[in-house]
Amino acid sequence: MPRSKRKVSDMNSTDEDRYSKRLRNTSNRRNARTEDTSFSQKRCLMWFREYTSTDDPDTLGPDGMEKFCEDIGVEPENVVMLVLAYKMQARQMGFFTKDEWLKGLSELQCDSIQKLQYRLDHLRSLLNDQNIFKSIYRYAYEFARDKDQRSMDMETAKAMLQLLLGKHWPLYTQFSQFLDQSKYKVINKDQWSNILEFSRTIYNDLSNYDVDGAWPVMLDEFVEWLKLARSKSDIS
């Protein structure tokens, strides 16, 4: 038989204390949920100020970025930081301006460490959408390149390619090796965009690569280099 429910008036003092405590805990949890789901731009800005200096209160720089990453438990080199920067439309790697911070975190409805940590999986999941990934990939070029240069230096380009394509493009290792021994010192915007297209459309055996297609010379040279490397491997 189900237990009968006692009225509050039938309880002894100990039971009343327990009952009151349960009511308070339930109320606190409800309030916490309400507080957790509400977004405060003021609270978001106060959080931003924790990472800036009095000399430049409207810019979160490298030192602040290091502390910010430590607080949310993410390595600065983690791809989710690039996705977050994309959400903010940050212009320069290693820096967030006040306006960029508010733009991105207002959209994510995050004004605290805990709320952003809760949204990290959502940010990572955006990389699984091919269209969004393409936008993030293209954004990464402008974000990471030296603004004084029209092209991206090779060291930065390789780091970004590793971050974005290293785990998903089977030919990435070979392409990286090709870049190491090539004459190229920078990657321009057209080359950058076509590398993604190549990684998505060209088979690993290169059988559908059209030498008369509109690919950049860099990728023509990569295909020639890889075919030669494979033929040498077959002979040996």
Automatic annotation (TrEMBL):
Keyword Magnesium: no
Primary location: nucleus
Keywords: Nucleus
Gene Ontology CC, one term: nucleus
Highest taxon of source: Eukaryota
Residue segments, region Disordered: 1-37
Subcellular location as annotated: Nucleus
Entry annotated with the keyword Hydrolase: no
Coiled-coil annotated residue ranges, if any: none
Pfam families: Cullin_binding
DCUN1 domain span: 39-227
The protein's role, per its UniProt record: Neddylation of cullins play an essential role in the regulation of SCF-type complexes activity.
UniProt name for this protein: Defective in cullin neddylation protein
Taxonomic classification: Eukaryota, Metazoa, Ecdysozoa, Arthropoda, Hexapoda
